[in-house]
Amino acid sequence: MSDFFQTGAIATLHRLGVPNLKRLESDLVEFAKETPIALVLPCHIREVGTRALRGILRELRQVPYLKEIVVGIDGASGIRQWRKVRNAFSQLPQKPMLLWNDGPRLQALYRKLEDAELYAGPGGKGRNVWMCFGYVLASEQSRMIALHDCDILTYSRELLARLCYPVAHPVMGFDFCKGYYARVTDQLNGRVMRLLVTPLIRALKSILGSHPYLVYMDTFRYPLAGEMSLDTDLARRVRIPHDWALEVGMLAEVFRNTAPRAICQSDLCENYDHKHQELSARDPDKGLNKMAIDIVKSFFRRMAAEGIKLDTGLFDTLLSAFNRQAEDTLRFYGADAAMNGLKYPRHEEENAVATFVRSIRAAADSFLRDPLWSPLIPNWNRVESALPGFLDELREAVRLDMKD
Q1: What is the pTM assigned to this prediction?
Q2: How many CA atoms does the CB half-sphere of 314 hold within 13 Å?
Q3: What is the three-class DSSP state of 32?
Q4: Tens-place pLDDT, residues 151-207
Q5: How far is CA 5 from the centre of its chain?
Q6: Neighbouring residues of 174: CB distance < 8 A, sequence distance ≥ 6
Q7: So what's the architecture of 11-403 in CATH?
Q8: Please, which residues have CB within 8 angstroms of residue 338's CB and are 6 or more apart in sequence?
């Protein structure tokens, strides 16, 4: 995405010219003296030993500016799997701390939260990230957090450096940075972003006008990116969703908790690839269909919180407006693919749009049945208020798990 266009509501930091990783990392070593950096990696046991994670660990071994690495582990059901995970990450010189989310000590802490009516949701990426943020706050070693997934096939140190740089920089003044990138192989990827999120936002704008939240969301080039960095003070205040809408839900929380001038997006790399989800067109509880429903519900909850009236009439209009936007989008992407010599499976793209129409309807029905339901986990300020010693217990539980 080699251009310098500013999209408006937030700052866009482009990847211009020949990348200079040595300069970026040298600067970050200096910045980290004043703003120590934690890297959070939400990881499932299925990702341990994969080509993607091996590549990520190989790159991280050479990163000189990280104060700590915190890895949240989901799916490790027994002590043998737990030791396998610890062995896989032991090669890192930064000596990462691992959170065994399914281990007895952290499970006891999750029950304690539930007893205090601070439900952290079911196991998944959202809860994993939330607990990792809690550990960073408990350790009191870092002043900012960078976050990315463990399934990135095209990972490089440049990606991490460009993600950390805006928040670590002592003068730029950013509290939050969202990553973006192109997702292209021999065809255009990123179906949920291209064929759901952008047409949905623009359909809503055509109905409701340029509401600040919709303008803000439309400014992000890839709001579904799993890469972000943020100040630890902001990490204390935001509520993290425990469903599949983690990325857009986080953006909504950032919109609520900080000023647009303190938010930016950074072009991280030339191209990006990770594991691809199935569409699951006929199963609303799996794959991209489930993800789409949770994402649309996240939009509806945020809009309702902004005082926008959502009823059956608006939802019926939205479905028609979305269809119109999606039809234009298909034509635009078809032309883009042809211009660049890429495959464009038009039938598959249209099937995806048809699935997302059903996802929007399912999300609308769910919202109308229970408009107050929310997947947002309480923020860490509230947890510390209700359970003053909880972060100390978390730090001790992780220390003991690392010794087992």
Answers
A1: 0.96
A2: 18
A3: helix
A4: 999 999 999 999 999 999 999 999 999 999 988 888 999 999 999 999 999 999 999
A5: 24
A6: 11, 166, 167, 262, 263, 264
A7: Alpha-Beta Complex (3.90)
A8: 344
